[in-house]
Amino acid sequence: MTQLSAAQTGTSGPSGSAKTLYGGKGTRRITVRDIAAAKERGEKWPMLTAYDAMTASVFDEAGIPVMLVGDSAGNCHLGYETTVPVTLDEMTMLSAAVVRGTSRALIVGDLPFGSYQEGPVQALRSATRLVKEAGVGAVKLEGGERSHRQIELLVESGIPVMAHIGLTPQSVNAMGYRVQGRGEEAAQQLLRDAKAVQDAGAFAVVLELVPAELAAEVTRTLHIPTVGIGAGPGTDAQVLVWTDMLGLTGGRVPKFVKQYADLREVMSGAAKAFAEDVVGGTFPQEEHSVH
Ligand code: KIV
After folding, report:
1. Per-residue model confidence as pLDDT tens digits over 186-197
2. How much is the pLDDT for 23?
3. Which residues form the active site (predicted)?
4. Which of 40, 131, 235, 246 is the most buried (most CB within 10 A)?
5. Ligand 1 mean position, distance from CA 25 (Å)
6. Which residues of 254-278 are buried (b: 16+ CB within 10 A; e: fewer)?
7. Residues involved in catalysis
């Protein structure tokens, strides 16, 4: 069998430790220790959402080092209007599929609304399901100061936590979808939230829809990596919802999304071509038939 070089595999050393987060095929999964090392090196990294095994396998092969099984599955996969109705059973099923479809990426499972707000013990029970039943390597939950007790207990129990502050979509009924951290008071609150999740032991923090200058300041202040979405170029990592990034989401997408393909157009064109072939009697042909 051909041996791949460390550069080709994205690994180095006998332990197979990740050399860079992005790129190549590794001999083992990315861990939160690799994420911490990337911050020390000043390496930026990409994260994408994934909700199913096949899509996740494509991103894994492309070298995406971290995948989030986000509760954005609610709007982008399950047909809900918001993330609020998503259940822990649904997140467990989707997370397990993404874990099965991947071999290198760190898979982060989102704790859905109602699965951790009661307190640390409920958070631990819910996170334990995602770790044991789905096999995720870390969980994500929303909230800064308000969630620090939950984060502390999960981390003490050996479950790595990605925090999420700024716009927190599970609170849409209270806060709407508005830019967060504008104005001195709100900016100070965001900084307090960021420090609270770091002090509680989170290994990374998502900053959603916050002014670029503030996100850059949070990134300079923290020793854990920041993952921006609608937070400008100054964060350590960037995350996009995959259906937005690949142009599958119908209707208006947020201004901060860069669309790298138009899958909706490609899929619709292919579906129409198939339908026309069937209606016109040109599919199947001899080469598609068995005898
Ligand atoms: O659920 C999700 O996809 C998220 C990302 C937008 C960070 O929380």
Report:
1. 999 999 999 999
2. 73
3. 208 (proton acceptor)
4. 235
5. 25
6. eebbeeeeebeeeeeeeeeeeeeee
7. 208
